[in-house]
Amino acid sequence: MKNLLIVLLACTLTAFGIYSCNETPENPLLERLDATLDMKETYQGYFKERIAVLNDVLAEQNDPDQIYSIRKRLALAYKPNSFDSTLNFLLSNRALAASEGDRLKEMEADFMLVEAYTKAGYHFEASEILGGYSAESVPEEMLQAYYSAAHCFNGETMAYTSSDALYAEKEAQRDHFRTLVLQMIEEGTLYWYDLKREEAEASRDVLKAREYAGKMIECTEVNTPDYARSAYFYAHTFRTEPKNPEREEWLIRSAIADVMCATNDYASLNEISRILFERGDIDRAFKYVADHCMTDALAYNGKLRAWQISKFFPEIERAYQDKHARQTRRMAGVMAVAVGLLIILLLLLMFIFKRQQILDSMRKKLQESYL
Asked: Residue 336 and residue 342: Cα distance in Å, rounded?
């Protein structure tokens, strides 16, 4: 009887233990990413403090050149964080330059607007601005900015063309403007390595692209926006080697830097979510997409990133709901088994108690009969 009670107790504990077991091996870098994401509000707070300092300095300025310069810094600071704020400062700078009759600053603001609109997915607006310029109409001192904006626009819009012919045309334009920019910038800079990486990828030289992406990482400080971007491109060179651990490692490093820099417009965490989903870590993938990727993309308020996430989020959401529905059913079954075992245990205890009472009564009567 004692052995039977032990067996029943073990079965009950096992039934509860089955539900709570976790077969997913932990990755120290993923745990670090989780810890960083838990502190996201803190990093956003640091970013807001830096912005507040710049805004305080801006409020004290009267000189148009100083106002333009500080607004430009604010636009660059907001570039990965908020499209609306970036747009606000760039448009304000353009209006200021126009009112001051400073054509060069007006052009600079326009070319920065082209890149901001393009990256956020507002391709029509970018095209409208860029279409108002040509290499012949741009002064020499602004040619690099013009070529960079044209390179960005053609490179980003390639993937959204409606035919192979238009794609090839955009690709040719991108390559043309990249060559022009490379001729104008200093060799060995972060921008130079980035363009050479793109050039190597265009020629399908993966190892060369990886080398240049590695040089980009060497040019940057850890956990800065440039580091996050460089680490992402380095990870991207392993896209044809899905089992290579370096791809996931550098995506995670990029994502950590994005969070620490209060970046809302990012790609790394999105890709990590898909990798985890394909691996079967549905809970973590759903948490990343639902709690961070989609909310951050909406906070940034660009068209492109939210649209990209919406293409794979429903699949992850369905898998998450299906998994938890199965777990709920399984838990209900486990609870039923556990309750049944506990009832049996209770009945056995009552039987033992009753039997003990009978034995005590018989023992008492035997003792009385001897007297």
From this structure: 10
Which of 64, 61, 57 has the alpha carbon at shortest distance from 92?
64
Of 131, 116, 87, 114, the residue nearest 304 (C-alpha): 116
Q: What confidence score (pLDDT) does residue 23 get? A: 44
Q: How many CA atoms lie within 13 A of 120 on its CB side?
A: 26
pLDDT for 16 beyond 50: no
Query: Sign (positive/negative) of CA torsion 203, 208, 214, 218?
Result: negative
The beta-carbon contacts of 69-78 under 8 Å, at least 24 apart in sequence, are 71/96, 72/112, 75/112, 75/116, 77/47, 77/50, 77/51, 78/51
pLDDT at 175: 97
What digits encode the pLDDT tens for the residues 189-214?
A: 999 999 999 999 999 999 999 999 99
- Provide the residue count of the chain: 371
Distance of CA 261 to the CA centre of its chain: 12
pLDDT at 116 over 90: yes
pLDDT at 266: 94
Distance CA 323, CA 280 (A): 10
HSE toward the beta carbon, residue 15, CA cutoff 13 A = 19
- Residue 138: what residue type? V
User: What is the spatial distance between Cα 293 and Cα 64, in angstroms, rounded to a whole number?
Assistant: 38
Here the tokens at position 370 are 């001897």
Percent pLDDT > 70 in the chain is 90
Predicted confidence (pLDDT) per residue in 53-64, tens digit: 999 999 999 999
As given in the structure block, the two tokens for residue 233 are 């491109």
Q: Please, are residues 230 and 257 in contact by the beta-carbon 8 Å criterion? A: no
CA–chain centroid gap for 313, Å, is 13
Q: Classify 371 as helix, strand or coil.
A: coil
Question: Is the sign of the CA dihedral 58, 61, 65, 66 positive or negative?
Answer: negative
Question: What tokens were used for 264?
Answer: 């809302």
Check residue 371 and give its pLDDT.
55
Distance CA 223, CA 218 (A): 12
Residue tagged 């486990």 (tokens): 334
